[in-house]
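Troubleshooting log. The previous run stalled partway through. Resubmitting the same two chains, unchanged.
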Amino acid sequence: MMISNGVRVNLCTYDQLPVKIGQVFVVDHEEIAVFRLTNGDIRAIENKSPHPKGGRLADGLVSGDFVYCPIHDWIISLVDGKVQAPDRGHVKTYQVEVNGDQVFLVV
Amino acid sequence: MKKKQLVMIGNGMAGVRVIEEILKMDREQYKITIFGNEPHPNYNRIQLSNVLQGNTTFEETIINDLQWYESNEIQLFTGEEVTQINTDEQYVISDIGRQVSYDELILATGSLPFILPIPGADKKGVIGFRDIKDCVEMIQTSKKYKKAAVIGGGLLGLEAAKGLIHLGMKVDVVHLMEHLMERQLDAVASNMLKAELETQGMNFLMEKATVELIGTDRVEGIRFKDGTEAKADLIVMAAGIKPNVKLASESGIYVNRGIVVNDFMETNVPHVYAVGECAEHREVVYGLVAPLYEQGKVLAKTLCGQKENGYKGSITGTQLKVSDIDLFSAGEIYDDPTSKSIVVHNEYEGIYKKVLIRNDRIVGIVLYGDTKDSNRLYRMLTEKQDVSESTTISFLQSGEAVESNDIASMPNDEVVCGCNGISKETIVQAIKEEGVSTVEQVGGCTNAGRSCGRCKPVIQEIIAYTLGDEFTHAAEKKTVCGCTSLSRDEVVAEIQVKGLTTIKEVMNVLEWKTDEGCSKCRPALNYFLGMVHPAYVDDRDSRLVNEKMHANIQKDGTYSVIPRMYGGVTTAKDLRKLADVAEKYDVQLLKITGGQRIGLYGLEKDQLPAVWEELGMPSGYAYGKTLRTVKTCVGAQFCRFGTQDSMSLGIELEKRFERLDTPHKVKMGVSACPRNCAEAGIKDVGIVGLDGGWEIYVAGNGGTDLRAGDLLCKVKTEEEIYEITGAFLQYYREAALYLERTSTWIERVGLDHVKDVLANEKKRKELNERLNATLARYEEPWARAIEEPAIREAYYRKRELVK
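Second attempt completed without errors. Output:
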């Protein structure tokens, strides 16, 4: 299957996403970390820390709308991808749609 | 609007600073191209001596990494030298024939080491001390050769010499003058410096004029004017630098010593500018970073159409650090008949301060060993303050009390970080508006302290002053984290008194400032609850990554698997299994760890459960705040010196206490005799066998808090060891801060206190009871992951959606 811009990819069912545990989906060779927050929202970001030395984000500690980078402890917003002060940077965010009990990623 | 082409020749600190300033003011005006003849992005040249001295790595000296160029859409050509400028048709040509047109051109070609024009200067092994290439050559030379000579006893030469000594070479420093650093220091300070550096292993050849470098193909020695010679396999020329102006002068741009610029950094040719060490402004060429950054700001404004005041030149105080000795000098150095000086010379502590005064005004400052007064004195100098009112020599002695006032009385616009031109006001603003509270964070927002690092103590004081009560309060009372105003002890007491049983409950009842805590309090609360309630159900998602995953995350996001190897004892069968699994999963690395076991490194997280299952071994908890390993020596079973069976004891200790959550990691060691092959003296708990008994040492540390263990007691039987060790571990669990090792904990509470607690038999018994109740709750985590699909799904799955 080829994925082009604006295509919706079915990730899994809503219940398959555990609360506060990042899940890794590999879509077209790109790793995406998907989080179900305590408030029920689903958020998806690129599974790559913006820290100059890199790292992955899915296994980080989740608090509210934020994930703590597991290697460098940067705090990253799962809503807009922005790294919180005093650090700086940005991770790519993805749009997520929930339709019934199915979760879709817009790529 | 089409962007204008801005080309910069040179990719060093001053030039790139111009670009940074331009980007801050106007991102839309220019398309930027930079040529750098070194094969690196912009790095901090000032730190090269630290690289040689092993204090930092090349990587860490990079100021703007390649990603910075990319994200700012700057075209960077590294390792490429511009060889020709056509100022009529406005283009440059590089050494590989690349032609780039410009609307505006910046020359930031820096300077070159001044190589003495003497016979032999072109031999192999003769270098300057200027860039990464020079450092690499020094490092490589030091591996093959033993003797170096540095020509030049100025700052650069001394830094090079210090680096070479660190690399293991014998170093002669050759200096033409009678005193070292004669442009910054007077004779007294200079002699103090020389004496100190001699104790650090430098050898000085003073008042020696070098006339020839001898040798065949490679340099072998130096010949001096007085006929003497010195051997040397490496010569570092550090006698000065000269502006790199060749390209400019060949291109018809007016050059005197440097490329001559006006107050707006414009050369005599339209659309061509110069900045940094290659530029000459009002007949001065600057070599320190602070004035060069000032020039950078002015040039950026010029290029963004904000020609206002222009650059007026800089008076600079030189704040230096040579081999850990703080130095400062500004203005005049030497007394003359019209000046009077105030001198404090504390030989005992190695401190020397001199202030030169003429007509009631400070005209010169030399500080050696203690430069805390430098900012204040320098301000008095530049502002030409009348000092006739200052009685005695009080202004040379800023005591502690005066010091804190210093920050209060410091004018807002006073520059704190000279390298980056950051004022007190900017730092205060960052602290207040960005909510930062550490020196590193201030650097992150403002650049302050990020070049030479000398101003970090002042930044620290500004933080303390700005945060005021909040800061002292925070310092006195260590709260668990920013989410609460309660300390560790207060939180634990509340958990006990109010019977709180979950993290959520703790946060609600104790009015946490955040909904779900942070990476500091969540793991801490999880630990406290587990410590207070033996039957606590662990909140796995409040653990940090390694403990959550039961594997150590590596820098690339892969994991390692390190199974138990109790007491460091294994079998042929287990080794074979480790080998088979390592081969099957093609692990990136198979290594004996520091804790006497074998680790498999570089596994993807979705491989972990399968690897664990095939190994069929329990987790070694190499990732946990828990008992890591019990290191043992061979002991009485085989060793002819061994008086006790250290292996059996070690294995038993490891089996009894494994998996236990502790405030920080715990390492143990058991040696069978005082030769102590298991290094029990640097373990959290170390046991040493004697004839007929054992010694128990505690709170040793072989890592960050290097510390020899304290002898806690001597015992006769193994049962006593289990009892004492159990009680010690439980007391540490109950009393220490989260993430406090036994070594720092015991320093804080005192060995005698811990001895007192453990001397009480009733207390020991109670501690052991609570410990055993806690130990009963643990399950083997790898086996659990294998058995429970829900755990595998939630933590170790990776879903591929496209083939």
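Takeaways: The longest strand of chain B covers residues 351-358. The mean pLDDT of chain B is 90.
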